[in-house]
Fold this sequence. Notes:
This protein is an alpha/beta fold. The protein has helices at 43-48, 77-90, 103-114, 138-150, 161-171, 177-187, 213-220, 237-241, 245-253, 270-273, 275-286; strands at residues 5-11, 14-22, 28-32, 54-58, 96-101, 119-125, 188-191, 194-197, 227-232, 258-263. The strands form two sheets. Strands 1-2-4-3-5-6-9-10 form an eight-stranded mixed beta sheet, sandwiched between helices. A two-stranded antiparallel sheet has the order 7-8.
Amino acid sequence: MKESSSRFVTIRGLRYHLRRWGRDGSPKMVLLHGWMDVSASFQFMVDALEGDWDICAPDWRGYGMTEWGKSDCYWFPDYLADLDFLLDAISPQQPVHLVGHSLGGNVATLYAGVRPERIVKLVNLEGFGLPATRPEQAPERYARWLKELHDAPGLRPYETFAELADRLQKGNKRLSRERAVFLARHWGEEKDGKVLLRGDPAHKIVNAVLYRYEEALACWRQVTAPVLWVDGKESETLRRLGLDAEQHAKRRAAFRDLRFVELDGAGHMLHHDQPEALARVIEDFLGR
């Protein structure tokens, strides 16, 4: 297993944790994790990379070892701003290779359209965007948001790290015991005799503002970097989102220079399920 180091930097008033693999002088690759995940989740994929890379993976605000947000909920544009300031800290002069999974993929694809000059190549792992919404849905959404602010969510405690590993394997039948135990130690922490996930429960509060598909599409169309879009062939995420094959294809078509790959034997967490195959696909695309 490749050893990582930790660095803490102040990003927009928050103490941000950055996990790093590799060395100075190598091509920079930035890895963005998904919702209710942490930076260490990329360990298996990083282990399978054969090239010489300088890899940085932040824990998003409110996840892992990064400080929680200072409000009672989270706003999506803050991820874009956090990434912008993060790149100022780690690569102020040179563009980077950007890889994002799920939530991280949604952030990465939008950011690459807003700041195209900062990205060499972009890898989107199951970052589909969300279903399009209609203005008349706004009253119900705001009402739900207000209710959830009053009824603050919580996170389930676990008796042991082994129990958390059991839960991870129950949620992903492809996950080996060894990997589940590793992830449990990074996803969880001991508090008051229990194991709690390293995440702010406020992440579970619904976004107050509706997802504006047309705005996302406009950003995607401004991406100039070559794009690799990778889905797990056994992923259920598209179905859960209510997106069909035609809608999926239309979203991919927004990117002017795109290569699409479906990974055999992988679900949504393809960096857990098939990290070796994923590493090969990414390195073939980025150039070792």
